[in-house]
Specification:
207 residues; mainly alpha; 2 domains; elongated
Length: 207
């Protein structure tokens, strides 16, 4: 029976080193996790809408409270009315503060997993070839497209043209985060470990 080839093997070959297959498969978990988590992060528009809705309800409640006179409230509960008015004003103030502090960068990413996919490709490329690919590199774009599909991603853009990865590659190349350094270290560690294992295996086979 012929063993089915890992979808990451073709990506590793496209980059130029079959030793990268295992680490590409391991790092793929970061892409899947990011895509999964993005589904549970509310959109920025929804967060703002919720605070606006809450403020509107608080203002309506405060207006309704204004129609109630202390004379109409039982003596045993007379303190509740001013407390309720203060609470609604506090809620309105909270909503104003939240709306002013919501960063434009918050909310679910527009393209979850895409930049991470490109980061892994460019760092694997740099490890194998000793240089980073350009954003316009057709081979790097194809590697991103293949790696994305290997993770179950749908084709990007019209007809899945690899050229649609140009802007994502450009963004990844400009990334200077600690996460990129983590990817770089993982690739080097795993690829070098794989190389050592292959050398040891060949030595044992010669005996």
């Amino acid at each position: 029976m012929v063993k089915a080839q890992s979808p990451f093997a073709s990506v590793a070959r496209k980059i130029g080193n079959r030793r990268l297959e295992k680490v590409l498969a391991q790092l793929a978990a970061n892409i899947r996790t990011e895509i999964h988590n993005a589904k549970h992060i509310p959109k920025l528009r929804d967060v703002r809408d919720n605070f606006r809705l809450l403020k509107g309800e608080a203002q309506r409640f405060e207006k309704a409270l204004g129609r109630i006179s202390l004379l109409d409230v039982p003596a045993s509960a007379i303190e509740c009315l001013p407390d309720a008015r203060k609470t609604t004003r506090d809620i309105s103030a909270l909503c104003d503060k939240a709306l002013s502090n919501i960063s434009v960068k918050r909310g679910a990413p527009k393209r979850p997993g895409r930049v991470t996919c490109a980061l892994i490709i460019i760092e694997a490329w740099d490890f194998e070839r000793g240089r980073l690919p350009g954003a316009n590199s057709p081979k790097a774009q194809e590697a991103c497209a293949d790696y994305w599909r290997a993770n179950g991603g749908l084709p990007v853009g019209k007809e899945g043209d690899p050229g649609n990865w140009r802007s994502t590659l450009k963004e990844a190349l400009a990334d200077r985060s600690a996460f990129r350094r983590y990817i770089r270290d993982e690739i080097r560690f795993e690829a070098e470990k794989r190389s050592s294992e292959l050398i040891s295996r060949r030595v044992r086979n010669r005996r």
